[in-house]
Amino acid sequence: MLRFVIAILLLTSLEARILETSDLTLFEQHLVDCDQRSLVLFDVDNTLIFPKDQVVRSSARKVWKKHAQDTIENPAVYGQEHWNEPYFFGQMLTQAEFEIVDPRVVELIHSLQQREIKTIAFTRMSAGSLGSIPSMEDWRIGHLKSYDIDFSPAFPLLHEMKTASLAPSGRSAVFKQGVLCANVQDKGPVLVAFLDCVGWRPSRVFFLDDRLDYLQSVETSLEGTGIEFIGFHYTAVEQLPSYLDEEVARYQLTHLAQTGLWLSDEEAVKRLPSAS
Predict the structure, then answer these.
(1) CA 94/CA 89 separation, integer angstroms
(2) Residues 117, 74 contacting (CB under 8 angstroms)
C-alpha cells in the first residue's frame, strides 16, 4: 500500500511543475528531451518581444490609461473627436517599436521546428479588430514574422480555427498560422478547448510565460488529463532597468492625440519643451 501511495505522489509531481527562470538556459535544457509528442508554447508579450518605449510596457499600463483617457475626454484640447481607447491603443501598437527579449529564442524556435516538434505562440491578446487594426491576430502574425518568428509549421493543414465559446465569457479563442489568441480569457481552459478542437493530445506541454498566473491556469486545467506540464515563469523583462518619466509619457500621448504620430522615448525627450 505504501509503495502504491509513493508511486501516485511521484506521478502527480511529474505531471505538473512550474520553474522560475530569468534566462532561456533552463528552458533550453528541458527541451533537449522533448519529442514529437510534445507541445511547446511561447507567450508573446514580455516573453518573445517587448516595447522599447517605457509607457507602452505593461508595467506602465495604469499611467498610460490615465493620460490616454484625458486626451480622449478632451477632444477640444487634443483635436481628435473620433478617437476612443481602442483606437488610441491600436495607433500606439502599430507605431511603437519592439525588440526581442532574448535573440537566442529565434534560433530555439527554428531548432524545435526542424525537429518537427509542435511549437506555437499562446497569447491572451484579444482577437478581431482593435481601433484601426482590422485583425489583431493578423497584426500579431505579421509582427512576429518581422522578427523571423513564424509558428505556422506547427499545424500546417490548419490555417485558421475558432474554439467553441467558453462560458461565462461567450468569447471564442482564435488559432491562426500557429498563433493561439485566448481573446482575453484564462489560458488554461483555452488550451484544453484548442486541443479538443484539433483532436490531438500531447504527452507533455512546455510553456514559457512571463505571467505566473497564466502558467498556473494551464497547470490547473491539465490536471487529471495525463499530460505532463512543465511551466517556466520567465522573468527576463522584470530584470531589465525600468524608469517611466511621466512628463515624457504625457508628451508622447498628447502628440499622438494631436498628430496621429507616435514619438519614441528618445524623440519625445528631444522635443519636450522643458528640454530646450
Answers:
(1) 9
(2) no
For residues 186, 187, 189 and 193, what is the CA-based torsion angle, rounded to 10 degrees? 130
Give CA–CA dist 101/140, Å, rounded: 16
What secondary structure does DSSP assign to 11-65, as a single string? HHHHHEEEEEESSSHHHHHHHTT--TTEEEEE--BTTTEEESSGGGSGGGHHHHH
**CATH placement of domain 14-52+97-240:** 3.40.50.1000
Residues forming beta bridges with residue 23, ordered by sequence position: none
**Interior CA angle at 149 toward 124 and 86, to 5°?**
40
Residue 117: phi, psi to the nearest 5? -100, 125
Report the C-alpha gap between 72 and 75 in whole angstroms.
6
Distance CA 80, CA 73 (A): 10
Give the chain's end-to-end CA distance (angstroms, integer). Answer: 79
β-pairing verdict for 174-176 and 228-234: unpaired
Alpha carbons 133 and 156: distance in angstroms, whole number: 25
Residue 89 parent element (H or E) = helix 85-95
**139 pLDDT exceeds 80?**
yes
Among 149, 50, 42, 150, CA closest to 96: 50
pLDDT digit string, tens, across residues 145-167: 999 999 999 998 888 888 766 65
Give the strand pairing for 179-181 and 118-123.
parallel
Grid cell listed for 265? 522615448
DSSP structural state of residue 152: G
> Per residue in 1-44, pLDDT tens?
444 333 334 444 455 699 999 999 999 999 998 999 999 999 99
Structural contact between residues 130 and 92, judged by C-beta atoms closer than 8 angstroms: no
